[in-house]
Structure formats: C-alpha cells, structure tokens
C-alpha cells in the first residue's frame, strides 16, 4: 500500500491509497481529486492518542473457510514464516500437516471439521498478528472470543508457541468426537431472559455465549433447542440454528473434562505483557493463572464477550481490529458500545473471498488515517523520504465564503425536495416546500387540502444518501410515517432531513414553534 499524509494545523487530515501499480495509484488519486469515492482510497482525521487506543480481537470458531490465508502464504514472507512455525509446533501433538491442510483444494478441504478448524484458525491468527507487528502496529489491549483466546494469550506473551499449539490440538481433538451430540441456537434475548428460558432445560441446554446486549447463543440437546426455538418464534422472537454439530460451551462438554485437564496440565503460563481481557472468566488476566483449570472454564462455561467488551470500552478503547480469517464480531462490538452511548470503529484483517493483501493494506491505511503509528521503514524499504514540492505561489483572487453561504448566494440546491445542506454536526438538509415552486404537490389532496406524499419522504431520504455517499443506489428500511405534513395554498413549510452517521437512521421533521420543538413526519433506516 502507498500512503500520503496531508497535515493541517490542529486537525491533521490523512489520506491512504492502496495500489499495486503506478496506473492504479494515478486512478485512485484522480478519483479522490474529483471528490469521487474509490474502493482503494481511505481518508480521515488523526485522533488524539486516547481515542485511537487499539484492541486486537481474536475471533473464535465460525469464520474459517477452505481458502483462508492462502494468498498471504504466497505473498507475505512474515505471514508464511509464522504459519510454518505453527505447523512445526502443532506436529509435536498431531500427525497431520497444517500447511498441507491450508493449501488443499476446496473439494478435499476438511476445514469445516473441529479437529482442523481450531488449529487452522489459531495459525492464521498467529500469522496475522506477526504481519501486523511487522508493520509497526501494536495492540493496546487484547481479547479473544472462545477458542480465539489461544492465539490471544500467545500474542499477549502468556504462552510459548509450543504451549499454545498444545491447547489448539487437544481442545479441538477432544471436541471432535462430540460432533452430532448437539447444536447451537442464536437468539435475540437479554442474558437474564435467556437464563429464564433455559432453566426448564438446564440439564440439556446452556447459555453458551453472551456477545452483546441482545445477541445470545444457546447450546445443547437439539430436541430441547428445537422446543425453545418454536416457543420464541411463536412469540415473534428471533431464533436461528447455527450450522454446527458440537454443543460448545454447554453441559455436553462435561464428558471431556478429565482428559482435557490431564492433557493441558504441562502448561507454563507467564505474566501478560499487554492488558488481556478474558471471555472465559470475568476481568483482566495477570497471566500466571491461565492454566489447565482456566481452559476447562473456557470450554465449559459461557463466552462472556459482552462483559469483556464493556470493560474494554470503560477503559477508553475505541478502535477494534479483528484478528481472524473473516470479521464476525464487529456488529456485536458496536452493539455493546452503542448500549453505553459510545462509538466504535471496527476493522478486519482480511475478509472471506477478498484479495487478502489488498484488504490488509486498506485496514492498515485506515489505521494510519487515525494516527496509529506505522513502520515506514518496512513500507519504504529503499530510497529516502522526501517532502512534496511546494505549490507555486499564485496571485489569483478567490471567494473565501463557506459553501452553505455560497449555496444561498447562488441559489443552489442539492435537490428540489432536499434543499440545501446546513452546517449541522450530523448531515442535515433544509428545504422550503410550497405548491408555487413545486406545483405537482398540489395534485395530492385529502379533503381539498394539500398533503405532502409519502413518496416525497422516500425521495428526500434517498437523495440525502446519494448526495452524502456519491452512490447511485439507496435502500430504505423500517419506514415510519408518523404525522401528515399539510401544505395550505399560498403558504410554504420548512422541513429538515437529517441522517445519523452512527446508526444510519433518517428523520424528516418541521419546526412547530419558537421553542425549538419539532414535529417528526417520517423516519427510517438507509443503506
């Protein structure tokens, strides 16, 4: 990736361009110069150090797929060396080759099987962590989801690679024979409500994971879970079975307890070198206590992901980088922070079926725009950095008025119904509606009174999205038409269209008096 930095006084604005050739760089920069969005261009303003504290989040089971890490193995020596080291460590406890399994064709891949998926995810995560460190990116905190705690603890310095490989092999090997003994069900309930629901089935069903305020996973006996799913669906509650045959984090794990404790007894945990937030128990780890007994908790007890993320957020972390073959936890992280009135930025390392090198570079560029330190010696291995030439001094005269003022002076509008963009913090447009300027509105009457049509609200919302993103399409959802907007003949009405950058909600409202109160006419979600 190639990165250019534009620094302005007080508010450093940064631009990162991901490219593979001079032509692609020219194309991306030309699009940015024209003000057009481009998939290989990211830009933003560097945050204060307190707002860019970076959390590495190691994903658990689920995101693995047959082709994961394959491009990085071919193109990134740092990644390849780390995965090869994992292969050697795993071979001490297993009789198969990780590299051979990672490079197997789709038709013969066994990546969906527990015995392979967990060690393979672990190796890909170790490789990604090494690749991030080689670019100068270091975590301010680390958290792992379920089996993701293996690579997380290794990254935090608690385990040697050999000990981490021991856990990955034995944890997955012992769980593999449990395939077919149960399944898992995702539900949209609070933790307390989930506890109440599973109480009648406590000997067969467990709360397996608490990922966010309303994202819960249950695990256990399939027949019992089917009854629970039918109850929830009858109440119009969300309930969806996951495509797994092992009841992870449930009473079904009890049968492997003794052997797991025996196999992991030789672990030699050390003090954590970075704040390490636990999901197999509550709190921040010292490191030395993460022995075989802890891993029994990790296997048997629920995943306390929400609790860990809440604590991470309480400690001031706002940027989350998923370390895994595909991002699966970003939505849960944002839900946790939204519930506490906070914002979060989540980034993937790589993404399923996307160019892995390009996706990694795009996330690296995004971190740079936030002010996260980057190792420029690695990105610029030859030559020496030089400053860009100064712009020639030209004595042309230019208006310095703000864009909203120029819009009013020149009579420009973004759209006849949308009106003009205001200088509000959130994207907001203001329009004056009347039947003289927009005579077709007079055709929409109820009892001889002009009523602004529902299609008009949808057009306003869609145009707001198109103006804001430069896209050519918009999707509207959850439309709520709340109160009619009347347009008496000879009068006009001022309306405001606002978009929330946090949750993509739009609101169309008009002022009702001098006290600042508004009447909301329509609302919904845009994509």
UniProtKB/TrEMBL annotation:
<keyword id="KW-0597">Phosphoprotein</keyword>
<dbReference type="GO" id="GO:0006633">
    <property type="term" value="P:fatty acid biosynthetic process"/>
</dbReference>
<keyword id="KW-0808">Transferase</keyword>
<dbReference type="Pfam" id="PF00698">
    <property type="entry name" value="Acyl_transf_1"/>
</dbReference>
<dbReference type="InterPro" id="IPR020807">
    <property type="entry name" value="PKS_DH"/>
</dbReference>
<keyword id="KW-0012">Acyltransferase</keyword>
<dbReference type="InterPro" id="IPR001227">
    <property type="entry name" value="Ac_transferase_dom_sf"/>
</dbReference>
<keyword id="KW-0596">Phosphopantetheine</keyword>
<dbReference type="InterPro" id="IPR014043">
    <property type="entry name" value="Acyl_transferase_dom"/>
</dbReference>
<dbReference type="InterPro" id="IPR049552">
    <property type="entry name" value="PKS_DH_N"/>
</dbReference>
<comment type="pathway">
    <text>Antibiotic biosynthesis.</text>
</comment>
<dbReference type="GO" id="GO:0004312">
    <property type="term" value="F:fatty acid synthase activity"/>
</dbReference>
<dbReference type="InterPro" id="IPR016036">
    <property type="entry name" value="Malonyl_transacylase_ACP-bd"/>
</dbReference>
<dbReference type="Pfam" id="PF21089">
    <property type="entry name" value="PKS_DH_N"/>
</dbReference>
<dbReference type="InterPro" id="IPR049900">
    <property type="entry name" value="PKS_mFAS_DH"/>
</dbReference>
<protein>
    <submittedName>
        <fullName>Acyltransferase domain-containing protein</fullName>
    </submittedName>
</protein>
<dbReference type="InterPro" id="IPR016035">
    <property type="entry name" value="Acyl_Trfase/lysoPLipase"/>
</dbReference>
<feature type="domain" description="PKS/mFAS DH">
    <location>
        <begin position="415"/>
        <end position="527"/>
    </location>
</feature>
<dbReference type="InterPro" id="IPR050091">
    <property type="entry name" value="PKS_NRPS_Biosynth_Enz"/>
</dbReference>
